[in-house]
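Below is just one:
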Amino acid sequence: MWLLIVCLGSVCPASAAPEDWWDAHWGYRLVVNVVGPERRAGINSALLNLAEQSQLCLPDGRDVRVVTAGGRSVPHRVEIRDNKTLDVLFQVAGGDTRFHVYYGNAEAEAAERRWEESLGGLFLETRPIDRPLHRPSDLRQAERRYRARFDRKPWGRIWDLENPFGRDDLYLSIYEGTLYCPESGDYQFAVNADDVAYFGIQGLADPLCWRGEGVPSMSWYDPNNPRAVRELAVEKGVYHIRYYHGENWGQQLAKLGWRTPSSDAIVTVPAAAFVTYLPVEIAARQALNCDICPFFVSRHEYTLRVNGREPGFPRYRFEARVANATESDGWQFAWDFGDGEPLVGAVVEHEFAGAQTHQVALKVTAPDGTEASILRPVTPPAGPVRDVTVSLSVGSDVHMLGPGSPLLLRTLVVVHGGLQSDFELVTQSGSHQDAVTQPLKFAPHPSGDGSELAFVRQSYVAAPDDMQVKVAVAHRGVEAVSERLRVLQTDGPLSGLHLDEAQDLRDQEGRLVVLRLADLRRDNAPPRRLCETRTGAVSILAFDEMLAGPPGHFQRAEYGEALRRMLAARYSELDFRFDRVARGLGSEPSPLDRFLRIRDAMGRAEPNLVLLVCQPQSVINGVPVGDFEGFLAASLDHVLARSRAEVVIVAPPPVPGAPEAARPYARAAKRVGLRKGVAVVDLYSRFLLTADWEGFFRPRGARRPSYMLYPNEAGQALIAQEVYTAVVGACHADLSAAVREVSLLRTGGAGR
């Protein structure tokens, strides 16, 4: 039922009985109202559940009496509900709208009287049809045309996904019944369906809402069916309603919603609104010797469910009901809901953070300071439910942070279904930091789909090691959705990282990852191992997408092969092996993708010398210099930390037609090398010092001016010479020592 009765216990001062007390042998009464005869839809019987007041009655309820305000006895009967509480059913006839329900007389005899009951309710009937229905106006014609039916039964509410009585295609559903509107004011009614449907209220608007064929709406509002939601002024009372649905293609969605005047959202009309008996509104609870007898009623408006999570957040409207007590006369009403959120006022609204039973207390203070209080439990029903969807997107403007740089995050929250002001952003960085909560301010989404968004930027202080940040959206302290972000040092293992569809870096658990450059240099990295002394092998691994041309294009003329031969000629005792990690023409990766490729390759290989080769495509494609420099440094960190290899950086050459464009990239490569203490091959300067350097990019034998993305055979030879010079300059001492050690091992000198 719509009305929930207060609990038994109350504290109130004693006084004489009211003048219109029917009989002093009865200790308690409820003053109740029903709607007038013009708003009863033909129902002549009312139902009142005594709830906790049943404890003041005899177990079988024979002491219950119902009289009119004038003292005339009314036919009634009492039923026991769930072996716990008493239902009082009584006749409502003529113009009587106020009744007194008496109870609490241990000496009373049974006095039930029967009457002919006229009741309401909701009924569903389905009928087979032989052709699809395309327009809402076809529904009433189909009702007259098709008389055979699958079945007709009492029903709960208008929210069905199938035909409960027969086949799931080509049928007509007819819902008809009595709907109780609990307050006067402007209502919104709404229909949602997968085929044609309409809803009408007899005597007010018939039809009121309708929609055509199509896909069901994700919300009640559908721009393709603007008449599916309609507003109508309705007086409190019971009304005859009809809802038609024509199902053409299998299964169905038939759904009726409303927004009552005091509510803030459209929800599915609950089953309790389709009344069989007239609802009863309690105006006051009075006791024979009680001057102030506090009482309140509550109406469950809906249970908010965020992202489909259970349990939800029940929202209630509470109204104090104390005889002859109003705020305007100086009475005070204080509410305690047991959750630290007290309210004051005769009428309040409150949302609980959980669907369990809550103890609600009301304290009433009279103008002279006299106080009385009452406490009772409130247990939320299963429905109606208001679904709200919250999405959270957290991102960083950069994939790479410098040492000591703060982490700047952008957070986007999108809410579908309203209640935006009740959501908060909760953030926490580090495992021992307290969470920080801030309210979110929403604005309409630019898409115009009815959703709202909030955008927040936040800064987090740099941590010396890896750190984790959690960003969550909460409603009433309960987390609705969250995302975790990790900041990882570039000298760490970094296993399981990958790029998502948005080209954001994530770990194996789907967490967003931002990299932070480590403060790592060659002199504070683990010792290098330039040669495998037992075998004399020196493995050279070049990370080079295109400077050497497409794989296999130059064969022995490629700079890598030339470099291998030159080193082998100088250090003949050593076995130089050259390998290259490359990609095909035109598929240059992003700096982040290139970094991940280097990480993957370093996890599989054990090189002795690594060449980090900067690409001409980075210049041609306009890769931001900051990204270029950051990920070059990150790659160097990872090689220094996760291997024993020596490292040489190869700066990009100039680009034909725009040589100056490569200068910032060459300078960035030299800065990284200087900062990290590793050798840099300055191809930019070396090419520009060569006459007709653009000729290094012309195909051999070309008859017209054209350039390749990579140097030709002559250019490859120049690159090999420059890399050779840098390697020898940086590694000669170690290579010479390796030569001596290998020679000793081979001649048996190591044993002497």
Q: What stands out?
A: Helices lie at 138-145, 559-570, 591-604, 616-620, 625-642, 663-676, 683-688, 713-747. Residues 1-11 have pLDDT under 50 and may be disordered. Residues 522-744 form a domain with the Rossmann fold fold (CATH 3.40.50.1110).
